[in-house]
Amino acid sequence: MNQQSYYRWWQRADLYYQREHLFFAGHPVQGLADQFGTPSFVYSAARIKENLNRLHAALNATHLAGRYSFHYAMKANRFAPLLTFLKQTGLCGIDACSPGEVEHAVSCGFNPAEISFTASSLSTQDLALLARYDGIFMDCDSLHAIHCWGQLKPQTKIGIRVNPAMGIGRAANDKLQYAGEVTTKFGIYQEQFDEALEIAKSYGLTVSKIHFHTGCGYLTPQLEQLERLIAHCFWFVDRVGQVERVNIGGGLGVPHVATDQPLSLDQWAAVLQRQFGARSIQVEIEPGDYIVKDAGLLLLGKTFVEQKRNTVFVGVDAGFNIGPEPAYYDLPFQPVPLRCSDAPCTAVSVVGNINEALDVWYEQAWLPDLAEHRHLALINAGAYSSAMASNHCMRGQFKEFLLF
Ligand SMILES: Cc1ncc(COP(=O)(O)O)c(C=O)c1O
Questions:
Q1: Is the CA virtual torsion 367, 327, 12, 270 positive or negative?
Q2: 387 half-sphere exposure, CB direction, 13 A CA radius
Q3: Based on the number of CB atoms within 10 Å of its own CB, is 252 exposed (0-12), middle (13-18) or buried (19 or more)?
Q4: Of 283, 361, 295, which is closest to residue 68 (Cα–Cα)?
Q5: Which of 52, 95, 176, 186 most suits a substitution to test ligand 1, by most atoms within 8 Å of the C-beta?
Q6: 101 and 181, same domain (yes or no)
Q7: Which of 255, 287, 319 is the last residue of a domain?
Q8: At which of 287, 314, 334 does a domain end?
Q9: Per-residue pLDDT tens for 366-404?
Q10: 239 and 320 assigned to the same domain
């Protein structure tokens, strides 16, 4: 990456440099860092709403208008003000994956009937807790879950999460795939599907939904795979005979590096139209990343700059434990300076304050001389960061703010 692309590719109407200063959601970022301190996550309410509106606009331009719905995957970011804001937009329901998430979503204003629940390895106690929420929709992902739910809620409707043994993910990144050649814990495979239907029948359960979520971070080049995947999953739909809904999971990605093109939502919507247009089925989509990831910045304080051997290290005051995606999934969170300049940049390694070798935010980041800088920001920190944070090394402290 060169200096130009470093400063340019991620800029957009609400994240840009003006007279050298970085602005986000209408705020000068230096002012936010000074006011809130670091490490702090800042989320833009307007960007979140814009992301959702863009998704709606893409599907409203197809024959699927009026027969689709979005369920925000709250595992991506469960910050209470953000969830309350989402509820107020009226643009999505919730995809929850634990009893705790359901309770939290309800406390932020969502009605259980707006919640679609999909999880793995549920205990009988989990299921009993979930059964208390009238109207919640259960997607069972194992034979065990169908048995338990059938005992708790006989004669009701359920969904079945299936595993099509095909995955999808950003740039063929295997770490982001939930299904594929390797056998995973997620969903029911073709060869056990008839048994699943028999169990459901034995409790008088009606299978009214087929659900699959097979990977994360897909962009336009992966849309052909998405189409193959959906086409393949009609095998399950046809086996049931008639279902009311198909949930295609989440997985829509956002650009992480200069060479990533944003996902073409027109092409994405065209895939859905081709696959579902001729069938009278409601389509559910449960994105997390796409809705909140690029709506968040992580503000960090600079701790040191020092050359060791052939590498210049820039230290910051938080590590991978509060934003694990770069370390766990090889998903780069690009560091950006709060002030830009025309001076030449140098390639540095941005590292955190955790005693682990994998605590590297970004290698080969082209940054200007940071002598006069007190802070850095990381883009794409709105999803799977604060939500996955741990207190490793007792450095789990951070703050979160929803900006309007
Ligand atoms: C069942 C299910 N649905 C939706 C999502 C959201 O995925 P993403 O944030 O990549 O859109 C996940 C995330 O792993 C998931 O497991």
A1: positive
A2: 22
A3: buried
A4: 283
A5: 95
A6: yes
A7: 287
A8: 287
A9: 999 999 999 999 999 999 999 999 999 999 999 999 999
A10: no
